[in-house]
Amino acid sequence: MDVVISGEIETEQDGLAYGAMVFKVAPGTTTEPHRHASEETWAVQSGAGYCLVDGERIGLIPGSRVVAPPHSEHTITNDGPEDLVVLSMWWKKL
């Protein structure tokens, strides 16, 4: 599997306005482009790659933090030799 997700992936369906998960992107793969109403913050745990947030390319290494604003299209690409592991946290204003 190219992307492995652990944790809460859809908390809004449970009536919550926030959530968190850890996901892994395998070497040489990219997450599907998507957007949503909530702001999302990523904290890179290990691996290397880059993300696109509304077309802006941002490098990712351990310790990187990136914020994807609400409704922005975003993807994450692993261009390194090992899994890219990212902690994702999101919330929306009520």
TrEMBL record:
Q: Does the keyword Metal-binding apply?
A: yes
Check the record and name the InterPro entries matching this protein. Answer: Cupin_2, GPI/OXD, RmlC-like_jellyroll, RmlC_Cupin_sf
Q: Which Gene3D superfamilies match?
A: Jelly Rolls
Q: Which SUPFAM superfamilies does this UniProt record tie to the protein?
A: RmlC-like cupins
User: Which domain of life does this protein belong to?
Assistant: Bacteria
Q: Which UniProt keywords apply?
A: Metal-binding
Residue ranges occupied by any Cupin type-2 domain in the UniProt entry: 22-89
Listed name of the protein:
Cupin domain-containing protein
